[in-house]
Specification:
The chain is an alpha+beta fold. Helix content is about 20%, strand content about 40%.
Length: about 120
C-alpha cells in the first residue's frame, strides 16, 4: 500500500490544479470601469416597449441606450450619476437577456439636474 502513495500524490495535485484553473480564468474576465448615467430614462424597445437608462463612458460621448439593469443601483429621475461598475460574462444567458452582468461597485458622483440633458 505504501508503494502506491507516491503515484497517487502527483495525480491528486494535477486534479487539484485542474479544479482551480476555471476560477482563475473567471476572475480575469471581470471588467471594472466608470460610466455616466443620464438623469432620465427614455423609451426603447427590448422584448417590448420599455424605458432604458442612457449611459456613456466619458462626458464628451453621446448617450447610448442601456437595455439591461445595473444590479444594486437605485436610479432616481432628475439625478445624473458617475458610477464604477463591474461587468462579468454570464454563462448560458436566456435568449432575451444580456450575456454581460453589470453590478454597481460604487457611486462616485451624483448631482441633481434642474433641466434634462440632451437626450439621444
Amino acid at each position: 500500500m505504501t508503494s502506491q502513495c507516491p503515484r497517487i500524490i502527483p495525480l491528486l495535485i494535477l486534479v487539484a490544479a485542474g479544479c482551480a484553473s476555471p476560477v482563475q480564468q473567471h476572475e480575469t474576465e471581470l471588467s471594472v470601469h466608470e460610466i455616466y448615467v443620464a438623469p432620465q430614462k427614455v423609451p426603447c424597445t427590448g422584448v417590448g416597449p420599455i424605458l432604458c437608462l442612457q449611459t456613456r463612458e466619458t462626458p464628451d460621448q453621446p448617450w447610448q441606450l442601456f437595455y439591461g439593469e445595473i444590479q444594486g443601483f437605485d436610479f432616481r429621475p432628475g439625478t445624473e450619476y458617475r458610477l464604477r461598475v463591474i461587468e462579468e460574462p454570464v454563462s448560458n444567458p436566456p435568449a432575451d437577456s444580456s450575456a454581460i452582468r453589470t453590478t454597481l461597485d460604487q457611486v462616485l458622483e451624483e448631482r441633481k439636474v434642474s433641466s434634462p440633458s440632451k437626450r439621444l
